[in-house]
Design goal:
Elements lengths: L5 H22 L4 H10 L8 H10 L3 H5 L6 H39 L10 H10 L11 H39 L15 H9 L9
Helix pairs in contact: 1-7, 3-7, 5-6, 5-7
Length: about 220
């Protein structure tokens, strides 16, 4: 059954966009003057927003990080996506190889029964698969079951690579949003105010209690 993981990847990205979209109202709870002042201190224009970073990151890899001027993150974004893309390509290439080799093997079995091999055009792919499995001396030992197992294994790896790459992309979108939000995060809003309790204040006024001596 050929089922890809792309719907799950799309749902993951949609969930991230929905989550940060809901949190956008919290971001703008600060007065605009406060946000503008915090942005100005860091050299950003007053209209710089987490929403802008969000949609830029979703539209093109690394654009959100560029928008936030976090240039050092961009190579990691591109490297991660390039690695994921290569894994998808390689696993899909292997899947296609063993799929065609399996079809050729099925055709060869029919030819042994007096018919013709309808998949003769996949002979090169079959030979490549045999080479991967140990060379020409293994031709007689390579069965359809083995080829199907290798085909299915590479298909699963391809689908997992697709899912992982999609989740990584979603994380880069979330990173751009959170980083833009932190630009206007005022540490003073969460300052810890420690106050003594009533008993502690009383103890500080009366001083330590002296124990009685036995007469």
């Amino acid at each position: 059954m050929r089922v890809t993981r792309m719907p799950r990847v799309g749902f993951s990205l949609f969930f991230v966009l929905l989550l940060v979209g809901v949190g956008e109202s919290v971001t703008y709870a600060q007065p605009d003057t406060t946000r503008a002042a915090l942005l100005a201190e860091k050299g950003f224009p007053p209209d710089h927003s987490p929403r802008g970073a969000l949609w830029r990151a979703a539209a093109a890899p690394g654009w959100g990080q560029f928008y936030n001027r976090q240039y050092y993150k961009m190579p990691f974004v591109y490297a991660g996506l390039a690695g994921g893309g290569f894994a998808i390509y390689e696993m899909n290439r292997r899947y296609d190889l063993f799929q065609k080799a399996n079809l050729y093997k099925i055709g060869e079995n029919r030819a042994e029964d007096g018919g013709e091999n309808p998949y003769q055009q996949f002979e090169d792919e079959f030979n490549q698969a045999v080479e991967r499995l140990g060379g020409e001396e293994q031709v007689g030992n390579v069965g359809g079951r083995q080829l199907r197992d290798l085909r299915d294994k590479n298909r699963r790896r391809r689908d997992l690579s697709t899912l992982g790459t999609g989740l990584f992309y979603a994380l880069t979108v979330l990173d751009a949003y959170v980083s833009a939000h932190l630009l206007t995060f005022d540490v003073g809003d969460v300052a810890v105010n420690v106050r003594p309790t009533g008993r502690e204040r009383l103890a500080s006024k009366t001083g330590p209690v002296q124990g009685r001596r036995a007469g």
